[in-house]
Amino acid sequence: MSSNTMDRLWSDYQDHHRSKGNRTCHMIGIPLIIFGLLSLLSIPIVTVGGRWPIEISLIILLVVGAIDISLDARLGALMLVVSFLLYLVARDLKAWPIAAAMFVVGWVCQYIGHGVYERRQPAFYKNLAHLLIGPLWVLNHVFHVRGEAAPARVPARG
Question: Is residue 119 part of a domain?
Fold first, then answer.
């Protein structure tokens, strides 16, 4: 994918997250969703060499990581590393009710952010790709790989 694609997605995502309250809700909610999901999907589907289980969560992590890297190589690579570290912790959480609660609380945070603070529907309602952009956006707010400001408006194709 081109950087033009990422710039368009990034700019649109930024437009849906202007209020400080919404951004704060996302900074809390998105990591909870990711951790909860990685834990809930830590279900081995195959064992390599009779010793190393490969879980659904690891496969999803690798597929999403490849997509993230195709969108933005540096931020995507960092996301893959951070996600893998979360996966290593999440897969050892054997209490599925805690993982499920983290997942649900994370989504509640998202909807509070959009309903109470932003007063605008989530970006992924119009474009499911934003479900991939959200975690990158949160990570960028921590490590400032892409910078904080939205890129210059990229004209829509058409």
Answer: yes
Q: What's the pLDDT tens digit per position in 69-96?
A: 999 999 999 999 999 999 999 999 989 9
Q: Over 90: is that where the pLDDT of 21 sits? A: yes
Q: Which domain holds residue 55?
A: 3-13+28-143
Into how many domains does the chain fold?
A: 1
pLDDT, one tens digit per residue, over 103-126 is 999 999 999 999 999 999 999 999
Contacts of residue 116, Cβ cutoff 8 Å, sequence gap at least 6: 21
Is 147 buried (19+), middle (13-18) or exposed (0-12) by CB count in 10 A? Answer: exposed
3-state DSSP of the chain: CCHHHHHHHHHHHHHCCCCHHHHHHHHHHHHHHHHHHHHHCCCEEEEECCCEEEEHHHHHHHHHHHHHHHHCHHHHHHHHHHHHHHHHHHCCCCCHHHHHHHHHHHHHHHHHHHHHHHCCCCHHHCCCCHHHHHHHHHHHHHHCCCCCCCCCCCCCCC
